[in-house]
Design goal:
The chain is an alpha/beta fold. It has one domain: Vaccinia Virus protein VP39 (Rossmann fold), CATH 3.40.50.150. Helix content is about 30%, strand content about 20%. The chain is built from eight helices and eight strands. The chain has an eight-stranded mixed β-sheet with strand order 1-8-7-2-3-5-4-6. Strand 7, helix 8 (about 220-230) and strand 8 form a beta-alpha-beta unit. Helix 7 (about 195-205) crosses helix 8 (about 220-230). The longest helix is centred in the middle third of the chain and has 14 residues, at about 90-100. The radius of gyration is 18 Å and the shape is globular. The chain starts with a helix and ends with a strand.
């Protein structure tokens, strides 16, 4: 019995990715490896269906500012954050539906959320999609953040996979910890994300040269991560 269990467990892990990605033909408006300035939903509608293996999405919501009512928009640390255009809940759901359409079967979405949305749950955003939650990473930013009761030091990356849910032959790197620490400067953008961990995640679920999309790129950290790992970035932001 123990031998059978060992063999079964060993069969789950594979350092080889067997998924193939179709050749992606892009319209002229979409330029790879550039900082496109355009609406994210328009961007997603221009990408063919079932075409890309991996997407990142960092929605611009105001859950911390409004739901938790910290009331610090007049202070320096809150001005840049509050100046960004907010995505209503329905807009976030539309983005995720658009990403779901573009992902190949068994493709991955890495979705950044804060503590509020982690506790509230994101399942309404997933209605009408073929996306399942398969994992979660905690990012310890190493900074002393906002908070009236406790001070926020972390953000969370929810790992979603488009059906069929599958690990072997799809996820090829198995030493990524689920709690990571990476300090990131907020000088260029108030919601900058960690380049190294995003690079590891895209490397785990794609081949070199594959497309990685980000329809709300913000600081374009995913662009830099894609460059570091030999992936082809395709993404945009309203501010370019």
């Amino acid at each position: 019995m123990s031998v059978g269990t060992s063999q079964s467990t060993a069969g789950v892990f594979s350092n080889t990715r067997t998924v193939t990605v179709p050749k992606l033909v892009l319209p002229d408006v979409l330029k790879p490896n550039t900082r496109l300035k355009m609406d994210g939903l328009e961007f997603l509608s221009a990408i063919p269906a079932d075409a890309v293996p991996v997407a990142f999405f960092d929605p611009q919501y105001r859950g911390v500012l409004e739901k938790l009512a910290y009331g610090n928009e007049g202070k320096v640390r809150g001005k840049r954050r509050s100046a960004l255009q907010q995505m209503p809940e329905e807009a976030i759901a539309n983005f995720i539906r658009g990403i779901d359409r573009t992902l190949i079967p068994s493709g991955h979405l890495f979705l950044w959320v804060d503590k509020f949305h982690l506790c509230q749950g994101i399942h309404p955003w997933l209605d009408g999609t073929r996306l399942d939650i398969v994992d979660l990473l905690t990012w310890n930013k190493g900074t002393f953040g906002m908070g009236y009761r406790t001070r926020r030091r972390g953000e969370y990356c929810i790992v979603l996979q488009k059906q069929p849910r599958k690990a072997k032959g799809v996820w090829k790197i198995h030493n990524i910890p689920d709690v990571i620490q990476e300090q990131v400067s907020q000088r260029d953008h108030p919601h900058s994300k960690p380049i190294d961990i995003q690079g590891q995640l895209m490397a785990a679920v794609s081949h070199e040269g594959d497309f990685v999309i980000d329809p709300a790129a913000g600081s374009f950290s995913v662009l830099q991560a894609a460059r570091n790992h030999g992936r082809t970035f395709l993404g945009c932001d309203l501010n370019g």
